[in-house]
Amino acid sequence: MRLFTGPLAWFFLPLTSIAWAQSNLPDCNGTDITRWSNCYGTGDFVTGHKYVGEWQEGKPNGQGTFTYVDGSQYIGQFRDGKFNGKGTFTSRYEKYVGEFKGNRFHGRGIHINAVTGVSTEGIWAEGGLVTTERLSGGISTKPAVQQGRHDETSVGEISGGVESSQSIVDAASKKCRDLGLKSGTEKFGECVLRLSR
């Protein structure tokens, strides 16, 4: 069986992601979301943002969908109120499918600039592209968005904000260079990713 990876695959991916938000947990009870735990429910926030999914101790935790007031959306895994694990972030400017940590691109993923159509597949750390990977057409050399809208207005309204840890990534990059790894290679990217966790 051949895996379909053509341009239309990006069209069908969001349709398959919808199933991620399904849960076997009971419905959340009451209107005070800070009391919701081990349940599935819809939380509407004063900012106009909305979360539908699994809750633990008053925070999104597990599978769910977070929708911003402007229509941008994250579908995927949450931990302690933040995007963590595998997911898809989509806005009118960009789409990213891959791994997240602390509301940021972190791990393997593909970023597509919706304006230019440029796609970059690679390893990301703390929201920034560390290294690109071999694509079917060769090596991608286009820069990706280092920090996108997903990081500026995030689930911080729920969990208390996003902490910047660029210094951790910088220190990890320096350590990997000191170990003799060449910046821009896959081994370098994996080294930075591992040290910045």
Give a quick rundown of the structure.
By secondary structure, the chain is an alpha+beta fold. Helices cover 21% and strands 37% of the residues.
Provide the fold topology.
Layout: H1 8-17, E1 39-44, E2 50-56, E3 59-67, E4 73-79, E5 82-90, E6 94-101, E7 104-113, E8 119-125, E9 128-132, E10 134-135, E11 138-139, H2 149-152, H3 156-159, H4 166-178, H5 186-195
Antiparallel strand pairs: 1-2, 2-3, 3-4, 4-5, 5-6, 6-7, 7-8, 8-9, 10-11
Helix pairs in contact: 4-5
Task: Give structural notes.
This protein has 197 residues and is α+β, with helices and mostly antiparallel strands. It has one domain. Helices cover 21% and strands 37% of the residues. The chain has 5 helices and 11 strands, in the order αβββββββββββαααα. The strands form 2 sheets. A 9-stranded antiparallel beta sheet has the order 1-2-3-4-5-6-7-8-9. Strands 10-11 form a two-stranded antiparallel sheet. Helix 4 crosses helix 5. The longest helix is centred in the C-terminal third of the chain and has 13 residues. It is elongated and about 55 Å long. The N and C termini lie far apart (36 Å).
